[in-house]
Amino acid sequence: MNEFFPTQKNETVKVVAKKVENEYMKMAERAKREAEQKRKREIIDISAIVVEDWELDEKKREDEQKEKQDHQERQSKLNVWLNELD
Fold first, then answer.
1. Nearest to 74 by CA among 82, 85, 86
2. How many Å apart are CA 20 and CA 28, to the nearest integer?
3. What's this model's pTM, rounded to 2 decimal places?
4. Quick one: DSSP state of residue 2?
5. Helices of type H across the chain
6. CA torsion, points 14, 18, 21, 27, in degrees to nearest 10?
7. How far is it, in rounded angstroms, from Cα 68 to Cα 71?
């Protein structure tokens, strides 16, 4: 402690404490931003998986519908052919 500036030590402690507090606040804000970015990436990843599954299901439905239509066409042609035989 300085005899001419008796409160200098207290002021130095306050300045250092404020700097430390500011660093912790910056670290907390950075951690919060990183957590938010991670959460957004996870949502995007999940969304991409859902879209991919939906597209696969849609393709499967289209294939099944086409197969059903092809079967109906073959059945119709067979019926026409059988009627011609009679």
1. 82
2. 12
3. 0.55
4. -
5. 8-85
6. -150
7. 5
Residue 81 corresponds to which amino acid? W
Count of residues in the chain: 86
pLDDT in tens, 25-68: 999 999 999 999 999 999 999 999 999 999 999 999 999 999 99
Record the tokens describing residue 49, joined without a space: 């998986």
Q: How far apart are CA 2 and CA 8, in angstroms?
A: 7
Rounded average pLDDT over 10-32: 90
CB 1 within 8 A of CB 9: yes
Distances (CA, A) of 76 to 67, 70, 86: 14, 10, 16
